[in-house]
Amino acid sequence: MPEIRRTIMNTFKDVQECQMFVMILKQKWSEFDIKLKDKLTVEIATDVADPCKHTAYVTAKSVEDFKLVEEWARKEVLPLRNKFAPKNNTFTCELDARFEFGGG
Questions:
Q1: CA atoms of 77 and 71, how far apart (whole Å)
Q2: Is the separation of the CB atoms in 5 and 93 below 8 Å?
Q3: SS (H, E, C) the chain
Q4: Which residue of 19, 26, 72, 77 is most buried, as measured by CB atoms within 10 A?
Q5: Per-residue pLDDT of the chain (104 residues; tens, 9 = 90+)
Q6: Residue 4 to residue 41: CA distance in whole angstroms
Q7: How many Cβ atoms are within 10 Å of 52's Cβ, its own excluded?
Q8: Pairing outcome for strands 53-60 and 87-94
Q9: What is the rounded CA–CA span in Å between residue 76 and residue 98?
């Protein structure tokens, strides 16, 4: 079964709001560790060209795992994000291919 990926791109009105929301995400994600240890990764990256933008990459090993985190995020993360009212784009997909290079 392919990995499930969600890419969430947010554009905030200023750098401070973006940084504040990243701090909130770090705290919230550290609280969410229950059943998904080793089944889920979250990566957050700030745009080097425009620090008002960041992207969150969520990867789950199964649809069921993804549904658990999606339900939690809807309750715990989205209300906080919506207070900042950033421009937002979200994409959810299944991984079709992975290419790794190097490594002896």
A1: 10
A2: yes
A3: CCCEEEEEEEECCCHHHHHHHHHHHHHHHHHCCCCCCCCEEEEEEECCCCCCEEEEEEEECCHHHHHHHHHHHHHHCHHHHHHHCCEEEEEEEECCCCCCCCCC
A4: 77
A5: 678 899 999 999 999 999 999 999 888 887 776 666 778 888 999 999 999 999 999 998 888 888 888 888 899 899 999 999 899 999 999 888 888 898 76
A6: 11
A7: 18
A8: unpaired
A9: 31
Q: 55 lies in a domain?
A: yes
Whether residue 99 is contained in a domain is answered as no
Q: Is residue 104 part of a domain?
A: no
Place of tokens 């990764």: 41
Range of the domain at 50: 4-94
The number of angstroms, rounded, from the C-alpha of 66 to the middle of its chain's C-alpha atoms is 12
CB atoms within 10 A of CB 68: 17
Give the count of domains, the chain.
Answer: 1
